[in-house]
Amino acid sequence: MQPYACDPRHSRGRRYAQAAALTRNEFQRDRDRIIHCTAFRRLVYKTQVFLNHEGDLFRTRLTHSLEVAQLGRSISRELGLNEDLVEAIALAHDLGHTPFGHAGQEALNDCLRAAHPPDAGFEHNLQSLRVVDVLEERYPSFDGLNLCFETREGVLKHCSRRHALQLEAREPGGVAARFLDGTQPSLEAQLCNLAD
Question: How far apart are the C-alpha atoms of 168 and 177, rounded to whole Å?
Fold first, then answer.
């Protein structure tokens, strides 16, 4: 790895303290938590693109996420970035997507805006963060998967200012801070955004 890559030994940590693993680094643990979570397994039932003229062939979010992870790992290897972090982000980046591709997201967006204007709306990246932070129930002591800051930051690849302010109020200096101060996420997070 190059010096500019994210080093799991220097992670900004997890929301809830946990002992280090003996055989895996922190980003490998994140990847494994994502692969074994319910939301990841449900991606097989969500279409990425919903087109009726394609016949019986369609792409699922699971297939897409695996392809983004493979492409991201290959590119990160060439660039000397952290492959484990790239893979974890890539596997989790679409966990919050609605069924029926972007058409499903737009339908949900319309419903939310009609019911709660002007502060409502649906952002799948924000929902992906909510899935890994709150909705997954893997541990008795806390909600969510308790992923590292760097993985969570990569999952939230873009976010409206309004939602960033809401997140920042709950977690000052957290994953939404960069949307308010104009800084960039890790190179690994940026690579996942491009691989997507």
Answer: 6
